[in-house]
Amino acid sequence: MKAIRHVTIVTMGCSKNLVDSEQLLRQFEAIGYAVGHDSEVPSGGIVIVNTCGFIGDAKEESIETILEYAVARKKGRISKLYVMGCLSERYLSELGKEIPEVDHFYGKFNWKEVLSDLGEIYRDDLRLERSLTTPSHYAYVKISEGCSRTCSYCAIPIITGKHVSRPMEDILEEVRTLVSKGVKEVQLIAQDLSYYGLDTYKTLKLPELVERIAQIPGVEWLRLHYTYPYDFPMDLLRVMSENSNVCAYLDMALQHISDNMLVKMRRKINKAETLDLLNKIRQEVPGIHLRTTLMVGHPGETDTDFRQLCDFVKEQRFERMGAFIYSEEEGTYAARHFEDNIPEATKRARLDELMLLQQDISAEINAAKVGHTFKVIVDREEPDYFVGRTEFDSPDVDPEVFISKETPLNIGSFYSVKIASAGPYDLFGTV
């Protein structure tokens, strides 16, 4: 009797990495492996760590994870250890010298070689299939790789290269396959959704892509992650307002609002243009919930710049907002041209002040939902509640709805939920 072979993939970083892991898991499944994802250090079998290399904290976490499994490899608790993803793409030779316990390092784009190195063949007929690691009712769909923007602080273009759009027909076929397997909510992801199509079709094709996906039977919710404000495809707003299954939700990292900082960050958009874009989005898609990400502590950020940023947050009242501290990344424009001279204590204080402001705004926005009824998808069951999300909430990063257990509910189904109370980050309600 043939022994069962085991492989576990551990995914670090963003949902774009998760898609790569899911595709690789599907290939292993097809050739008869027992597969696992993000499990505790397994006993025996192969472990593949899919790394993140975006900023300092993410790199540290990836290295710590590799070292944890390297110890297991050294002790014979696992048979092979492979590393792939953004961190190994960027530091391939250095990592090989520093962590010899790893059997092989692969980059961001050559992970298919894992299979050939194990004597297996990558099956091209399965290239649009994945073994979902998310709940079966939602999935992430990656529409492009890389990024062609030149933001001063960002290492992504160095790691992944220029933007490469996937063929539209491939994306549509993948969505149809996912829907046939029970997926109801599609999360479109890319480093930069806005740019989609410009490289291959020579025009901005995101509006057409979204409209065509929205017309696929079974797509009940379609959500957009990571749009870029400069050269935003304005026809997308019409598509969002005309298609009820396109969530009134947009994830757009703005980073800053001070003209001084927008120039230093090389964002190609100024304060006035940013405010005009935000006004148009809110006018054309009433009730939209905007998620943004802001940065503090970029070289050259003055107290005046930071005060402008705080005022911007107070005035805009973003429904969803995250922020992070500037991290100098070697090879970037900022690392080459600016000194990282803002004290860490100042950066941390600015971050804390900004997030405290947002906490109050979030609490007020949530409180305004009390007494109203929303369509909610149920993600999971906990001892005291069913837990779900409204169309305004993306998994893992946004508020959740805790639904009382008076009525039995089905995971992955939609219900009308009346909100009874609210906290700064979560809602509580009943069916």
CATH architecture of the largest domain: Alpha-Beta Horseshoe
What strand order characterises the main sheet? 6-9-10-11-12-13
Q: How big a fraction of the residues is strand?
A: 15-25%
Beginning-to-end CA distance, first to last residue: 51 Å
The poorly predicted ranges are none
In CATH terms, the superfamily of the largest domain is tm_1862 like domain
Put the structure in a nutshell.
With 431 residues, this protein is of the alpha/beta class. It is built from 14 helices and 18 strands. It folds into three domains: 121 residues, Methylthiotransferase, N-terminal domain (Rossmann fold), CATH 3.40.50; 228 residues, pyruvate-formate lyase- activating enzyme (Alpha-Beta Horseshoe); 58 residues, OB fold (Dihydrolipoamide Acetyltransferase, E2P).
